[in-house]
Write a structure and sequence with these properties.
With 214 residues, this protein is an alpha/beta fold. It contains seven helices and nine strands; from the N terminus they run βββαβαβαβαββαβαα.
C-alpha cells in the first residue's frame, strides 16, 4: 500500500441497544474506541473521529469533528469524515469494531484503484463502516442527504463501486473477526471473551494503561 489514506471512525450513534456509550466500554483495560484507533493507525496516516462530543473523543484521534448534517445517521458521518479527510482515500469504520485487521484494511485500500468506493457485500448485506471511500463520493453523499435519504447505500448508483466478498480474504482473516460489531451487552460479553483468546488483540492492549470505566 503506497498511497496515503485517512482513517475515519464514526462514533456519533446513540448506543441505544447497549444502554451506554459503547465507544468507551473497556476491553482489556482499553476503551473500545482507542483499540479501533490503534488498529486504524497501522494503515492510515491520520485518524479522524466523527462524534457529537469531539472533546471527549479527542485523545484518540488527530482531529474530532461533528456531523455537518446531524441526525441523518451513517450518511452524515461518512459525509463529515470525507469532508475533513486530508487525503483522497478514507477508510471509514465504526467505533464498535475492536478486532479490525490492518492487513484487511490495507487490502481494501489497494483495491480502491479506479473506483470511488470499495465495500464488502455478503448474504447479510453490506458493510458501509468497513469500507474505503474516495472524496469523489462527496457530491453523491451530500445529494442523498439533501434529498432526505437515510440509507447508507442510497448513493451507490451514482458512483463507481467495487463490491468485495469476505470470502476473498480467507488468508488475511480466516475467522472474519474484522467484521465483529459490539452493539448489545451479549456481543460485549463475547468480545470480552475474545480478548482473552486472540493474540492480535492482546498485542494491541499490552502497552495500554488501565483506564477507569466512564
Amino acid at each position: 500500500m503506497l498511497q496515503q489514506v485517512s482513517g475515519v471512525i464514526l462514533a456519533g450513534g446513540t448506543s441505544r441497544r447497549m444502554g451506554r456509550d459503547k465507544a468507551f466500554l473497556l476491553l482489556a483495560g482499553l476503551p473500545m474506541i482507542e483499540a479501533v484507533s490503534r488498529r486504524l493507525r497501522d494503515v492510515a496516516d491520520e485518524v479522524i473521529i466523527v462524534a457529537d462530543d469531539p472533546q471527549r473523543h479527542s485523545p484518540f484521534a488527530d482531529r474530532c469533528v461533528p456531523d455537518v448534517y446531524p441526525g441523518v445517521g451513517t450518511l452524515g458521518g461518512i459525509h463529515a469524515g470525507l469532508l475533513s479527510a486530508s487525503h483522497e482515500l478514507a477508510l471509514v469504520v465504526g467505533c464498535d469494531m475492536p478486532f479490525l485487521n490492518p492487513d484487511v484494511l490495507a487490502w481494501l485500500v489497494d483495491a480502491a484503484d479506479g473506483v470511488d468506493l470499495v465495500v464488502f457485500r455478503h448474504e447479510l448485506g453490506m458493510e458501509p463502516l468497513h469500507a474505503v471511500y474516495r472524496k469523489t463520493c462527496l457530491p453523491a453523499v451530500e445529494g442523498a442527504i439533501r434529498s432526505g435519504e437515510r440509507c447508507a447505500f442510497a448513493f451507490h448508483d451514482q458512483i463507481r463501486v467495487r463490491y468485495m466478498n469476505p470470502a476473498d480474504i480467507p488468508s488475511l482473516d480466516p475467522g472474519l473477526g474484522s467484521f465483529y460489531n459490539v452493539n448489545t451487552p451479549d456481543q460485549w460479553r463475547e468480545a470480552l471473551t475474545q480478548t482473552r483468546t486472540q493474540d492480535a488483540v492482546t498485542e494491541v492492549c499490552d502497552s495500554a494503561s488501565v483506564v477507569a470505566p466512564p
